[in-house]
Structures are given as C-alpha cells and as structure tokens.
Automatic annotation (TrEMBL):
Origin: domain of life: Bacteria
Residues with site note (Important for catalytic activity, responsible for pKa modulation of the active site Glu and correct orientation of both the proton donor and substrate): D126
Statement: the UniProt record of this protein carries the keyword Repeat: no
Record family assignment: Belongs to the glycosyl hydrolase 43 family.
An MF annotation (GO) of this entry: hydrolase activity, hydrolyzing O-glycosyl compounds
Signal peptide annotation: none
Name of the protein this chain belongs to: Family 43 glycosylhydrolase
Cross-referenced InterPro entries: GH43_arabinanases, Glyco_hydro_43, Glyco_hydro_beta-prop_sf
Organism: Cohnella thailandensis
Pathway where it operates: Glycan metabolism; L-arabinan degradation
GO biological process, one term: carbohydrate metabolic process
Keyword field: Glycosidase, Hydrolase
Amino acid sequence: MRLDQIQMRDPFVLKEPSEGRYYLYGSTDPDIWQAKGIGFDVYRSRDLEEWEGPFPAFRPAPDFWADRNFWAPEVHAYKGRYYMFATFKADGVRRGTQILAADHPLGPFRPLSDGPVTPSDWECLDGTLHVDGDGTPWMIFCHEWVQIKNGAVCAIRLSPELDRAVSEPVTLFSASDAEWVEPVSSPKNGTGYVTDGPYAYRCTNGELLLLWSSFKQGRYAQAVARSASGGVLGPWTHEPTPLFESDGGHGMIFRSFDGKILLALHTPNRTPDERPVFIELAEEDGRLSVCDS
C-alpha cells in the first residue's frame, strides 16, 4: 500500500534500525468519533513508499475498560521494549492516555498502566513520551479544551517502568499563548482554544522544541514551541506562525535512514479523507522550516 491508500489520523513513525524498517501507527478506526473502538493497526516499510499491512497492533480484551475514542497511538523504544501511549474513553470515565507494552513493534500491545496515567478527573488526550537529559521519563499531554475551554499542554513525571505517574501534573502553556491560535466552536462544547498532539524534538544544537496543533482561520495547523531552559518545564515560547497550516497537523518528527528530517502529520483534517503525509524539514540553529519541494 501507499500512504494515499491509508486512512489514518495522528500518524507516528517508529524507526527500527535493527530491522531496517519503519513502523507507522495512528488512529486507524474508520470512525474514531462515534463508533465503538476496534483497536490500532500498524504498517511497516523499508523505503517509506510501499507499506505492508495492516497488522493488528492492539485489540482490546473483552474486559478492557474503554470502548470508544481509540486515538493517537505512539510507540517508543525504551529499555529494550516497545511502549504505546494511546488515548481511550468510556461512559463515566474521563478521556485519558494509557500506556501499553510489547516485545516487538508489531505487538500485540497489552495494558501496562492501570488505566489512564493522566489525572482521573481531567479530560486528557495525546500523551507522548519524553526522556530528559538525566534519563527521567515524562509524559507530555493535553488537558482538553472541552473541559477547560483554553486547552493546555501539561507534563507529568513517570516511573522508571513507565507504568504510573510519580508527580503532580504541571501546565507548560495554554493554547491562547500562541498569538496566531483562533477559537473553535461546537454545539456540544461551546467555544474554546484547542491543544492537540504534543511531540518533543531535540535539535542538533541542543534546543528542545515541542510540536503541537491547533486551529487558524478554521483550519488545522502545526505549531512549534521552544523551551528557554532546554528542559521540559520550559518556560515555553511560541513561533509566531505555524510550521504547516494547510489543514493538517498532529505531527511528529523522525529521521529517515538516509538522514532526512521528516515531519509526519495527517491532512486534510476531516474524516474519512485524512491521510498520513511526510514533509521534509530543514533545521538550522534550532529553527525548523519546510524544504522547498
């Protein structure tokens, strides 16, 4: 299969050097909004052009707590295993990010944490792993706008085993802190400012950037924030314009085997037309830009 044949939101690429392969994960249920959750599929490739799959990376056991909104799986290699951070929801349970684990990128992934690691009384989504300079693991995630109106990006320290939170959450910034972000409205949730899809990226000069997504002029857009301290707690400042604003976002960055810096995101931001795309980036002095095509 090619990327334009794969319906997927929130694409995430794991590069596995030992196999010379890339693994592509994302929100792969045909209807992630209303239908009962099916699970997460994964595709694999050697050249980023032709993809094998789908393979079932995660399917819920009959007693799994969540039944909907299976969103945004990320898979990270960490201490010899593979850890999936993914968002789930059920009636009477706040949306949150749970951590799952497997011995191979294809899975099967099984729950590691006891339910969501995000605060139980918060509506949260899109948890991502960040390991800081001294080896401490953090989960960066979004406190959702549907609950607090001005969506926030937050961080919480994890245990060395990645199975639980070991600190209180810290708010890193709010959506409206970026000057270009504009509010969205829905009949159910009213009006507010969106934060989606955080992903930490360490530049070659040591600067720490954070990708996240919001809306500009009604279109999904890819934002970039910068840590003044070089650490996860910031303080964070925001690039004055989006990195990508053509109705696409929820991005992450990876390096191809031939050394290219690639931004993976989905576009357009509408179901069922969303597709994963890879966009080559240039990095200079801690700044990212889209390469001329």
